[in-house]
Inverse folding.
């Protein structure tokens, strides 16, 4: 949940509430698309993690398993990518940002 809070906090400092709402709507649309078809997301580092762009500056990272999809991380694409795998590994062990269960 921290990465979502970080994104919203950053947007709140740099932009206004309209921009925050637009971003949250984009995020909701991307989560809906992932829930319908998780496979198009680009595989990351030859692992089970997948990536999809929410916006040109923010990516969403998730992984799929037999029970559903776990949204793990929102990533500011301007951050150092060397830190990404470590964050993904630790976030995959903690509570997901969002969980989509298959029926």
């Amino acid at each position: 949940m921290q990465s979502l809070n970080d994104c919203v906090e950053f947007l709140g400092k740099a932009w206004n509430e309209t921009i925050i709402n637009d971003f949250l709507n984009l995020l909701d649309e991307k989560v809906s698309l992932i829930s319908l078809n998780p496979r198009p997301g680009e595989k990351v580092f030859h692992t089970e993690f997948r990536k999809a762009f929410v916006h040109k500056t923010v990516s969403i990272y998730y992984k799929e398993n037999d029970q559903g999809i776990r949204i793990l991380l929102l990533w500011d694409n301007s951050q150092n990518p060397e830190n990404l795998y470590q964050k993904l590994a630790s976030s995959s062990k903690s509570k997901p940002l969002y969980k989509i269960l298959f029926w």
User: Anything to note?
Assistant: The radius of gyration is 13 Å.
